Amino acid sequence: MVRLKNGFWSRLWSNLCRWNYSFWQWYKSIYVGRPWYVKAVSGLCTMVVSVILLLIAVDINFLWLFGKSPSINEIMHPKTNNASYVYSADGVLLCKYYDENRTPVKYNQVNPLFFKALVDTEDERFYSHHGVDYTGMLAAVKDYVIHRHARGASTITQQLVKNMFKVRSTNRGLLGHVPGFGILISKIKEWILATKVELFYDKQDIITMYANTVDFGNNAFGIKTAARTYYNTTPDSLTLDQCAVLVGLLKATSSYNPRSNPERSQWRRNVVLWNMVTHGDLSQARYNEMKNEPTQLHINIETPNDGRALYFRNAVHDEMQAWCEENDVDFYTDGLKIYTTVDSRVQEHAEEAVMQQMYQVQHNFERRWGSDPCWVDNKGDSIPGFPQQVLRTTDYYKQMVSRFPHNPDSVNHYMNTPHKMKLFMYDRDRRTGRIVAGYREVNMSPIDSVRHMLHFMHCGLVAIEPRTGFVRAWVGDIDYTTWKYDKVKSMRQPGSTFKLFVYSAAMESGMTPCSTERDDYLSMNVFNEQKNQWEQYTPRNANGDFSGQDMSLRQAFVQSINVVAVRTGTDERVGMEKVRKTAQAMGIKSPLVPMKATEAKPSLCLGAMDVNLLELTNAYGTVANYGKEHDPVLVTKIVRVEPDGSETVLYNYKDHQQEEQAISPQSAFYMQQMLMAGITDAGGTSNNLESWVGPYMSTTDFGGKTGTSQNHSDAWFVGVTPNLVAGVWVGGEYRSIHFTSTQGQGGKTAMPICGAFFEKVFQDSRLRPSYTGRFVSLGLPPSSYDCDPQPVVRNDEPADEPAMQEVTDSLGAGEPGAEGDLGDMGAQGTQQQAPAAAEEPGAESPAGNNGGHKRHNNAGGGSNATPPAGQPSTGNEPQRKK
C-alpha cells in the first residue's frame, strides 16, 4: 500500500514537472520576433492573471496547499471566544469562565474618543479604503527601500481578520509550513478576507468588532474587559487619557503596559495624543496640558480566588462541564449566562457564621492539643510518622522525588529545609470586626508546615430550600485558597443524624412518635462478610447506661438513644432493608451497605455508612417538604448570547424538574414534630439552638438533629425550618484528628455554626419574609405525636452544658489569632486510616463496618472528585480560567 501511494505521488510530480516545462516552452515561443512593447504588455497581463489565479488558488485552497479559508457564512456569523458568566439567584455576578477574558459591547457603549484615537493611530485611511490600504503599503515599501525602516501597513480590518479567524495559526495548508511561504500565504488570506469583510459590514460594525476582539494585555480581551482591568470602569466612561493609553497598548501590550512600564506607556500615550492633534481631533493646547500628566490607574485584575461561594462555583463548574459535553457547547467560549440558585446574601451569612464559630472551635481544639500531635488511634496514642505520610502525598514532595529519583537523602534534606510560604490564619477585619481568613508569610520547612496544618479543624455548610431543592448557600471549608477539597462533598459517617431515616421508616411502617421501644441491653449476631464469620453486635448508648424503660420513639429521637434506634430499625415491622431504602428514597445516593455485603447492617441505624453533607441535608429537606424529594438544584437556567445580542435559552430546570413522594405526608409530619421536639423537649440534644433562634420561634418552626461519630471524628448538625434546611459538618482533615472530649460533639461544634447562620438569615430584613413560616398541620390527633413527658435520660450531647465554651477574644483589631496550615501545599494525601466505627461516642465498633476550577478559572478551579472516606483531595485542580 505504501509503495502504491509513493508511486502515485511520484508519477503525479513527474507529470506536473513535464507539463510545466512544456507550458513555458510554448509561452516563450509565442514572443519570439515580437516587438518589445508587445512583450512588455503581454508580461504585465501575465503577471496580473498570475496574481488573480494565485488569489483564487489561495481562497479555494487549491490542492490543499494553502489551508481552508472561512466561508461566507462564517464571515457573516463570526464566532468569537466570549466569556461565560455565572450569576447568583439575586443577580450578583459570581465568576466568569473563559479562554479569552472577553465581553462584547456595542458601538454606542464606547466613548467616541477611543475610536478617534484608534483610527488616527492605527489606520488613518480606515474610512476610505476597502479593507486593504494600498497607499499605506506603497509608503511602507518606500520607507524600507529608502530609509531601511520597516513599518506595518495592516489596516484595522486586516487586524480584525487576524484576531477573529486566526489565519496565522490555523488551517495553514501544505505550503504554510514551508519557511517563507507561511507568512506570505497568511498575508494573502488577510487581504482576501479583509476585502470580503468590507463587503458585508459597514465601518461602524468593523471597528466595533475590532474593539471587542483585540488583546489589551493582562488577559484583557476587548475594550470592556480592558476598561475594567486597568481603570475599573466601563467603556463609555473612559476619559481621553485612558483611551489614549489603551490605544497605545495595542502596539505592544508588554512594552507599553501602564502597570509594568509606566514611563514607556506615558510616552506611547503622548504619541497617540499627537496623532489626534495632527488629524484635527485634539487641540494643541489640550495636548500641551496632558502630555506631562501621569496616568492614573485603578488596576482590577481578576484572580481565581476572588469573590464568594468559591466551593459552590467549583460545583457549578463540574455540573456545567458535564452538561456542555452532552450538548456540544463550549463552556469557555460560547458566551453563556448561567443562572444559579445560590443567594449571595444567604451565602454571605453562611461564610460569616462558619468563620465566626470555627474560630472558637479552633481555639478549643488548640487548647486541648497545643503543639502535641493530634493524630491519634482508637486508644488515643499518637500515630508514628503520620505527618511524614501526609507529606509524601503533596505535590512538592513528588516534585523532589522526580528531581532526585535515586537520592532519598536529598529529598529528605529539602523536606526539612525552611523556605518562605504563606500560612492560613484567623484574623479580624479592622473595619467590620468580623473574623476573616488571613495569611502570614513565614520561613518553615515542608514537614513542619504539615504538622502545623494538621492542627486545624475543618467545616462544611450547605443550605437548601426544601420545596424546590435550590441550594442557597454552600461553604466547602474555612478557606478555599488553602484547602481546595470541598467538605460538602466529603464522605464521612453521619452518626445520629442518620436516625432520621430509621424513624421515618418506622413511621412508614405504621408506628407513630408515641410508639415505644425498650431502652435496655441489646445484643445480636451479625454476619461479617469480609471476615466470613458471625460476630456479636452490642450497641451502647453514649453514656454507657440504659434506663431500662419503655421509651417513646419521640423521646428516643430527641435524646438520641442508640439502643432504641437499633431496636426500631430491626423491629420486624420495619427491618434494615426498609431503613436503607427509605434513606435512599429520601435523597441519600451513597451506598448504605458495607463492602462485599448484600444487605444493610444494624449499625446503619447509628450512622455506620458514609454519606456526604449535601445529600444528608437534602434528605432532611424531604421531611420539611412533606415527603417529596428533589435532587439539589445548582443551575436554574443557561442562556447563550448570540452575536446580534439576542439570547437563546439552552436549559431551564423547570423542563427537567422531578419530584418523588419518598415518604407519606403523614410520616413527614411526624418527623417534623420530632425534629422540633429536639429543641423544645427536656433533654433534647438540640435544646441550645434556641439561644440563637429563640426570638424567631414565635413565627417560625425550627427543628434539628445532632450527630457525632465514634471518637468525635465527625460532628454534625442539620437544622430544619419549613422553608430552609441547613446542614453542618465539623471535623479534622483526617478521621484520626479529633477532639477527645464532649467538646467534639455535634451539639458543641456543628450546632453553633447552624444556629449562628439561622440567626443571621432571620436578622436580615431582606430575607426574613422568605424564610418565616410554620409547618402545616395535617389534622392528625396530637396524641399520636405529642406524648406525655418521660423521665429525662441524658445521651449524646447533654442539653444543660454550654453549646460551646466561650473564647476569650485574643484577636485585637487586625491582630492575628490562631494560625496554621500546609501553606500552599494544602492538606493532600492518603490518611493512615483510623478505624471507622459507626456509633455515637462510647459505642462498640459494629461488625461488617467499612469506612467509606490555558483554561483555568477565577473561581478556582474545579475538580471535586470525592476521594475515599476520610481522605482529603489530591490538590490536582483544573488549569482552566474561570
From TrEMBL:
<feature type="domain" description="Penicillin-binding protein transpeptidase">
    <location>
        <begin position="461"/>
        <end position="723"/>
    </location>
</feature>
<dbReference type="InterPro" id="IPR012338">
    <property type="entry name" value="Beta-lactam/transpept-like"/>
</dbReference>
<keyword id="KW-0808">Transferase</keyword>
<feature type="transmembrane region" description="Helical">
    <location>
        <begin position="44"/>
        <end position="66"/>
    </location>
</feature>
<dbReference type="InterPro" id="IPR023346">
    <property type="entry name" value="Lysozyme-like_dom_sf"/>
</dbReference>
<dbReference type="GO" id="GO:0071555">
    <property type="term" value="P:cell wall organization"/>
</dbReference>
<dbReference type="InterPro" id="IPR001264">
    <property type="entry name" value="Glyco_trans_51"/>
</dbReference>
<dbReference type="GO" id="GO:0009252">
    <property type="term" value="P:peptidoglycan biosynthetic process"/>
</dbReference>
<feature type="compositionally biased region" description="Polar residues">
    <location>
        <begin position="871"/>
        <end position="882"/>
    </location>
</feature>
<dbReference type="Pfam" id="PF00905">
    <property type="entry name" value="Transpeptidase"/>
</dbReference>
<keyword id="KW-0121">Carboxypeptidase</keyword>
<keyword id="KW-0511">Multifunctional enzyme</keyword>
<comment type="pathway">
    <text>Cell wall biogenesis; peptidoglycan biosynthesis.</text>
</comment>
<dbReference type="InterPro" id="IPR036950">
    <property type="entry name" value="PBP_transglycosylase"/>
</dbReference>
<dbReference type="Pfam" id="PF00912">
    <property type="entry name" value="Transgly"/>
</dbReference>
<dbReference type="GO" id="GO:0005886">
    <property type="term" value="C:plasma membrane"/>
</dbReference>
<keyword id="KW-0812">Transmembrane</keyword>
<dbReference type="GO" id="GO:0009002">
    <property type="term" value="F:serine-type D-Ala-D-Ala carboxypeptidase activity"/>
</dbReference>
<dbReference type="GO" id="GO:0006508">
    <property type="term" value="P:proteolysis"/>
</dbReference>
<dbReference type="InterPro" id="IPR001460">
    <property type="entry name" value="PCN-bd_Tpept"/>
</dbReference>
<keyword id="KW-0328">Glycosyltransferase</keyword>
<keyword id="KW-0573">Peptidoglycan synthesis</keyword>
<keyword id="KW-0961">Cell wall biogenesis/degradation</keyword>
<dbReference type="GO" id="GO:0008955">
    <property type="term" value="F:peptidoglycan glycosyltransferase activity"/>
</dbReference>
<dbReference type="GO" id="GO:0008658">
    <property type="term" value="F:penicillin binding"/>
</dbReference>
<protein>
    <submittedName>
        <fullName>Penicillin-binding protein</fullName>
    </submittedName>
</protein>
<keyword id="KW-0378">Hydrolase</keyword>
<keyword id="KW-0133">Cell shape</keyword>
<keyword id="KW-1003">Cell membrane</keyword>
<dbReference type="GO" id="GO:0008360">
    <property type="term" value="P:regulation of cell shape"/>
</dbReference>
<feature type="region of interest" description="Disordered">
    <location>
        <begin position="780"/>
        <end position="882"/>
    </location>
</feature>
<comment type="similarity">
    <text>In the C-terminal section; belongs to the transpeptidase family.</text>
</comment>
<dbReference type="GO" id="GO:0030288">
    <property type="term" value="C:outer membrane-bounded periplasmic space"/>
</dbReference>
<keyword id="KW-1133">Transmembrane helix</keyword>
<keyword id="KW-0472">Membrane</keyword>
<comment type="similarity">
    <text>In the N-terminal section; belongs to the glycosyltransferase 51 family.</text>
</comment>
<keyword id="KW-0645">Protease</keyword>
<feature type="compositionally biased region" description="Low complexity">
    <location>
        <begin position="827"/>
        <end position="848"/>
    </location>
</feature>
<dbReference type="InterPro" id="IPR050396">
    <property type="entry name" value="Glycosyltr_51/Transpeptidase"/>
</dbReference>
<feature type="domain" description="Glycosyl transferase family 51">
    <location>
        <begin position="96"/>
        <end position="276"/>
    </location>
</feature>
